[in-house]
Amino acid sequence: MLLRSLRIAKGGAKAEIETTRMITEKVAALAEAQVAATAAALRGSKKHRVAKKALGVDARRVSSNRRRLAK
Q1: How is the chain split into domains, by residue range?
Q2: pLDDT (tens digit, 0 to 9) for every residue of the chain, 71 residues total?
Q3: What would the 3-class secondary structure string for the chain be?
């Protein structure tokens, strides 16, 4: 979150691109997490497993963004 905020705070074209990317990624991540949680629930997983599937989507995306923004 800090790396992304710093990039946006600098302003300019990169900040606009990052802001747009952030919004697009959040919508896609929400949809992906919902699908993962729904699939786990339909398989009869316990509540903590359903939550773990949904949170796993977020963890993968955060890790990916951290690598990209640290460059």
Answers
A1: 2-69
A2: 888 899 899 999 999 999 999 999 999 999 999 999 999 999 999 999 999 999 999 999 999 989 988 87
A3: CHHHHHHHHCCCHHHHHHHHHHHHHHHHHHHHHHHHHHHHHHCCCCHHHHHHHHHHHHHHHHHHHHHHHCC
